[in-house]
Each structure stands twice: as structure tokens, then as C-alpha cells.
Design a protein that fits this description.
By secondary structure, the protein is of the alpha+beta class. The protein has 4 helices and 2 strands. The chain is 42% helix and 12% strand. 0% of the residues are buried.
Length: 99
């Protein structure tokens, strides 16, 4: 991680992104919380961007996060992926602008 100059953290939970952003901006004299200590590596980077992406605009990532919390998330190929994953993927691909 030390060779990285920056990072973009994206997520659909604005509260978490705001917390992470505030953790970086917190004054040095404040006693850091456990999570702020865990995020301290971010201060070593030149640039850290936090970007909120609404869940509706990121449906496949939302599905994967929820699915991974309660199921085995290891698929050997696309055929072994759940049908809902493939439906969301197909729908999202249909929304892409044509080139």
C-alpha cells in the first residue's frame, strides 16, 4: 500500500463514507476511536477521495455485498452464479449507452 499515491473509496452508505472522511480530518490531539486507528493508513496517501454512489445506480455491487453476507460467494464461472446476479447484470448492460 505504501507505493500507492492515492485511493478512491466508493460506497452506497453515505454515513460510512462521511465517517471515514471525518476520521482523516480529525485533529491530531483527539483520542482516536478503534475504527479511526484502523483507517490511519489512509493519512499516508497523497489523495483520498470518498465517493457516494446511490444503491440504485450500483445494483450489482449491492447484490454481491448482500449475497456474500449469507452465502458462498465463490463461483467458478458465470454459469454457477445465481440467476438473480445474471438478471441484474443483463439489465445493467442493457442500460449502457451504445458506442
Amino acid at each position: 500500500m505504501r507505493e500507492a499515491k492515492g485511493v478512491i473509496l466508493e460506497g452506497d452508505c453515505k454515513n460510512v463514507l462521511d465517517f471515514c472522511s471525518r476520521s482523516l480530518q480529525r485533529a491530531a490531539w483527539c483520542d482516536p476511536t478503534f475504527m479511526e486507528q484502523e483507517l490511519s493508513f489512509l493519512a499516508e496517501l497523497n489523495q483520498v477521495l470518498f465517493r457516494h454512489i446511490p444503491r440504485e445506480a450500483n445494483r450489482l455491487a449491492d447484490f454481491c455485498a448482500k449475497f456474500g453476507m449469507s452465502n458462498n460467494f465463490i463461483w467458478t464461472d458465470v454459469v454457477s452464479a445465481p440467476a438473480e446476479f445474471l438478471e441484474i447484470l443483463q439489465d445493467d448492460l442493457g442500460r449502457l449507452p451504445s458506442v
